[in-house]
Structures are given as structure tokens and as C-alpha cells.
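[audit] Reproducing an earlier prediction to check determinism. Same input, same settings, fresh worker. If the C-alpha cells differ from the archived copy the diff job will pick it up downstream; this log only records the rerun itself.
[audit] input (22 residues):
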Amino acid sequence: AAGMCSTGPKVAHGYEELAQEV
């Protein structure tokens, strides 16, 4: 998620960011 959510909008990878980043 660290790289994906940075290169794309949170709308696309928000679920993955919430699962690991936040």
C-alpha cells in the first residue's frame, strides 16, 4: 500500500491503505 496509494488516488487504494498504512 505504501507505493500504490502514493501513485494513485485514495479512492482506488484507500481500502488497502486503511488495512495496512492507517
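[audit] rerun output stored. Observation attached for the diff report: The mean pLDDT is 58.
[audit] end
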